Amino acid sequence: MRFWSFWFNSFVLSSQYNPPRFVELLMLLLAIAMLAIASILPDIPYLILGLSLVVGASISILVREAIAPSPQARITQLTASLLLIISLYGFADLMYSI
Fold first, then answer.
1. CA-to-CA separations, 94 to 16, 32, 45, 79, 82, in angstroms, rounded
2. DSSP state of 43
3. How do the residues of the chain divide into helix, strand and coil, expressed in percent and rounded to 5?
4. Fewest CB atoms within 10 A around its CB: which of 2, 13, 50, 61?
5. Is residue 5 part of a domain?
6. Under 8 Å CB-to-CB from 64, ≥6 apart: which residues?
7. How far is CA 95 from the centre of its chain?
8. Distances in Å between the alpha carbon of 96 and those of 31, 62, 70, 84, 91?
């Protein structure tokens, strides 16, 4: 029980300390879940939802880094840009295949 209490307190503290980063983390975790479901089930809505969450999270990360840069701003911006390019390519491929 102490283990779960520690994780819950860490979860609450991280959501209060930096809410935008916490929301971006939740969006990326949901995107991973949706893309995993889309790889198992051949339904397009899971893929579209997962790619939309990745686009939203990466744009949010880029805007946050432009407003208030972190110490590792270059790596964060590079990763977010890479995620954005890959997800937009996924959307383009999806539109081409429909």
1. 37, 18, 11, 22, 18
2. -
3. 90, 0, 10
4. 2
5. no
6. 20, 21, 24
7. 22
8. 22, 27, 38, 18, 9
